[in-house]
Amino acid sequence: MSNTEFWSHPLVETAGYFSTVVLCLIVSMVVFEIVTKYRCWHEIKKGNLSVAFATGGKIFGVANIFRYSIEQHNTLPQMIGWGLFGFTLLIFAYVLFEFLTPMFNVDEEIEKDNRSVGFISMIISVGLSFVIGASIS
């Protein structure tokens, strides 16, 4: 098997995409941890279901965006670039959600375990990930 055949083998490509997306997902979760006013994993450990909803939506959203990026781009750098661009749009959507709800603070409500706000945050992340994914494909 030549070097080119090895790198283009479906198992090797899948492992490469998987490991790259996991690394990007970790980076995105660190960025979300910085953007939010609460500590995601600390709150989840305490049993805060609202934070679990919001964080789960973010994880799903980022993974879904990268799914579209993998499907539509031929090289690893293109896939990473478009995936990170989509992630940036997802962060923008989170900030926009906070801005469009002036009657309450989204981060504070999620930290207080307001499950309605946590659930809506999850749905926004999931729903917009499909829109973002379709637009980058």
TrEMBL record:
<keyword id="KW-0472">Membrane</keyword>
<comment type="similarity">
    <text>Belongs to the UPF0719 family.</text>
</comment>
<feature type="transmembrane region" description="Helical">
    <location>
        <begin position="79"/>
        <end position="97"/>
    </location>
</feature>
<dbReference type="Pfam" id="PF03994">
    <property type="entry name" value="DUF350"/>
</dbReference>
<feature type="transmembrane region" description="Helical">
    <location>
        <begin position="47"/>
        <end position="67"/>
    </location>
</feature>
<dbReference type="InterPro" id="IPR007140">
    <property type="entry name" value="DUF350"/>
</dbReference>
<keyword id="KW-0812">Transmembrane</keyword>
<protein>
    <submittedName>
        <fullName>DUF350 domain-containing protein</fullName>
    </submittedName>
</protein>
<keyword id="KW-1003">Cell membrane</keyword>
<keyword id="KW-1133">Transmembrane helix</keyword>
<feature type="transmembrane region" description="Helical">
    <location>
        <begin position="117"/>
        <end position="136"/>
    </location>
</feature>
<feature type="transmembrane region" description="Helical">
    <location>
        <begin position="15"/>
        <end position="35"/>
    </location>
</feature>
